[in-house]
Amino acid sequence: MKVSFSPASLPKSGVVILLVPEGQSLTGLAAEADRRTGGQIRRAMTAAGFTGRGDTTLDVVAPGGQFSRTVLFGLGQPAALRPLDLEMLGGAVAGVSQALRTDSVALAADVAAAGLTVGETAALIASGIRLRVYSFTRYKSKKPDTRELKQVTVLTPDAKGARQRFVAFEAVADGVHFARDLVNEPPNHLHPVEFAERMRPLAKLGLKISVLTPAQMKKLGMNALLGVAQGSAHEARMVVMEWKGGKASEAPLAFIGKGVTFDTGGISIKPAAGMEDMKGDMGGAACVAGLMMALAKRKAKVNVVGAIGLVENMPDGKAQRPGDVVTSMSGQTIAVLNTDAEGRLVLADVLWYIQDRFKPRFMIDLATLTGAILVALGKEHAGLFSNNDELAQRLSEVGYATGEKVWRMPLAPEYDKIIDHDVADVKNTGGRHAGAITAAQFLQRFVNNVPWVHLDVAGTAMDAPRNAISQSWGSGWGVRLLNRLVAQFYER
């Protein structure tokens, strides 16, 4: 679907979307549309009691003036609209346009929200449109019998400014859609080797892509990660993506993703009910991949490294057993008491590798790590654990700005003691109580005092609540959050 920007002039015909502030007379393009229809739009508003209140719509079919229909969207009070509200409005516009089964619409965006120019307002609404229009039909033998929305023309007095601002928004939307595609893929099609191969084309955007094989990881001592993969017919991979948009002397920002392409639980096997959802246990890795695409496409002025550990957790005669002890890349030994607590084993080695090789300014890992975080926070917030107050606060701030909200959870020595072990240095599970916290405490042992955040995205990366800009089972959660963090606080 393509979004374009044109000067504020109504089309001769077709479907037109009009934005109406609450309690105000029709102005601009809305007033012009009313004149062309002989006052039909105003009469329809009066008859329906439509006042422009937020989250309301009025569909006027065949109003005249050669329009096939006009759809009015209530803005509420423009002074109260945040950038996120404008993106959500764009998503709602796209949703209604799709429901009309039309292939093109014109959107009259000639109003400005408080603190924003008319061009910025139009670009944010267009961002929401791009985020909303997504489908995953690759494996349908027959495509849905609907007319797809292919073109949205945004009409604005500042078409040039809106177009310039939209470039970055479109890059982020592309990254979100890429992440959604990865999470939605069936696990027989997206195993670790295939996942790694899909990262190689990102080199065309200017990213340096390095793919580590089991032999290379074995040489590095990454036995925690490799232990998870040893029961699968599909080999493990680690992919490192580097974006160099800042000064050569600047240490990079680092983002690390858990990429378990399917998780049976291993020998500690999961219940059968719902196991099909475990194709999404690579949601953290998908986010990192989408983020790196977005940063490269918008040519972010910062150095960034993204790393994903890719494994499949399967039970067979070679699989890791409960009670095994493995030696991680850090040299710390880990007692594997539960093979379904595998994601932290993968991250332990990747975190150590990244902090040891790249000396980053900070590390943020994302992982669909625990069911315990769902019990604590549901699906509205991701769990945030950190050793750095400033980084945690910044993520909280951009979380509310993007709608990808996080909630800080505690870390403390008392929780850390729970994962001490009598045979090994640490055990990979602390039991039922405080499960999300002890998982984060485990990871903290492998960050070596680097400023660090762990985001437990088990409730948000897959089957998250639908909203105006995300209707997909694979949400692409985290791409917008982390892109905003980078843009707002770390780009020069």
From TrEMBL:
Top class in the EC scheme: hydrolase
UniProt keyword terms in alphabetical order: Aminopeptidase, Cytoplasm, Hydrolase, Manganese, Metal-binding, Protease
Domain of life: Bacteria
Substrates-to-products reaction catalysed: Release of an N-terminal amino acid, preferentially leucine, but not glutamic or aspartic acids; Release of an N-terminal amino acid, Xaa-|-Yaa-, in which Xaa is preferably Leu, but may be other amino acids including Pro although not Arg or Lys, and Yaa may be Pro. Amino acid amides and methyl esters are also readily hydrolyzed, but rates on arylamides are exceedingly low
The keyword Ubl conjugation is assigned to this record: no
A GO molecular-function annotation: metalloaminopeptidase activity
Cited CDD domains: Peptidase_M17 (cd00433)
Boundaries of every Cytosol aminopeptidase domain copy: 338-345
Active site per database record: K270, R344
Residue sites binding Mn(2+) 2 per the record: K258, D263, D281, E342
Reported cofactor(s): Mn(2+)
Main localization of the protein described in the UniProt heading: cytoplasm
EC number: 3.4.11.1, 3.4.11.10
PROSITE patterns: CYTOSOL_AP
HAMAP family per record: Cytosol_peptidase_M17
Name of this protein: Probable cytosol aminopeptidase
Protein's organism: Aestuariivirga litoralis
Taxon lineage: Bacteria, Pseudomonadati, Pseudomonadota, Alphaproteobacteria, Hyphomicrobiales
Name of the gene: pepA
